[in-house]
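Hi all, long-time lurker, first post. I run a small reading group and we've been trying to get comfortable going from sequence to structure in the token notation. Rather than ask abstract questions, I figured I'd post a concrete chain and ask someone more experienced to write out its structure so we can walk through it together at our next meeting. Sequence below, copied exactly:
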Amino acid sequence: MAGYKVHSFDKIPSTQDTAHQMILDGRADDRTAIVAQAQSAGRGRYRRKWVSHHGNLYVSFIYSAPERDSRLAYVVAVAVSETLNSYGIDCKIKWPNDILVGGKKISGILIEYSGPYVIVGIGINIKSNPTVDAYKTTKIEQHISTPPTPTDVLARLMRNLDKWQSADFLTVRQYWLDHVVGLNGTVSYQGQPAILVGMNENGGLILRRQSRYLMVYGDEISM
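-- Answer (accepted) --
Happy to help. Here is the structure in token form:
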């Protein structure tokens, strides 16, 4: 698929953990994809459990990464967003790693670095969505009459990841700003409120706290 080396599994504990192990074992290559039909120990940020039943897409991509790039999170979020948009689904991006439809989570992203690689984990709800106390969830099947297969979603996602990784970052920035939740609204930064007003050309988020402007990198912001 699209020049990727794909490793497919019916059910494994975690595509992300499998990717880490492949790197440790010296079996990883740039543009490798680990795909599972289901996961028994899927996880998100802070090792939160990601419920992973059959029928959805669970994939971790391995890319060469000689250095960390703060812009990658935006690139991946835009690629996932456009993949869902291609099915006629209007979605929004919630910093740092969620894609929402109607305020409900439909996809999550997890980016981790390991040696000379970066692992981009993506889960997209297609035919099932978990019940979670902390937030509402949804799935593609609730928004279109004939939901796609995980294979079709994966193929579109790969194309969009390649497209947006090759794009000028100013184009990525504009798409992200046009689709982000909470722009010009209040966010929490280091436990204190601030206004999210934009993003610079290097992926730094611009906040305003009273008359002060702050440049923030990383995931210290919560919305």
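A couple of things your group might point at:
The first strand starts at residue 5 and ends at 12.
Residues 5-179 form a domain with the BirA Bifunctional Protein; domain 2 fold (CATH 3.30.930.10).
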